[in-house]
Amino acid sequence: MYAERSSVEGMGGMDSLIESSYPRGSLIDASVNPSSVRPENSTKLSERFQSAVLEALDYGLGVLGETVRQAIYSYIDLKHQIKREEIPENLDVFRKASAGLFGFVC
After folding, report:
1. What angle do CA 52, 56, 43 make, to 5 degrees?
2. Whole-angstrom distance, CA of residue 2 vs CA of residue 93
3. How far is Cα 68 from Cα 61, in angstroms, rounded to an integer?
4. Where do the domains of the chain lie?
5. pLDDT tens, position by position, 12-50
6. What is the C-alpha to C-alpha distance for residues 58 and 84, in angstroms, rounded to an integer?
7. Rg (CA), the chain
């Protein structure tokens, strides 16, 4: 599913990596008016959003290595009582937890 990292050259190549991994409209269509989304479709969009967030986190933290990624998820669970699967619903808490973990303010 992921494009090869060697094809990414600087930040300019990131757009093509994202587009090749997630074709336009495959995750969330920003042109959809949220008030016009039917309840059954909104659940589907929400599940897709949660899945996309978790996949992005796994990929981003995976750059640090599998052991480090698991240690970060464990730290956030122990210190902030948020399991990996709950992160998409608690993005602000995750942001604060990761800021404290990495030593910077977001």
Report:
1. 15
2. 28
3. 8
4. 1-30, 32-102
5. 554 555 555 555 555 555 555 555 556 566 677 799 999
6. 10
7. 16
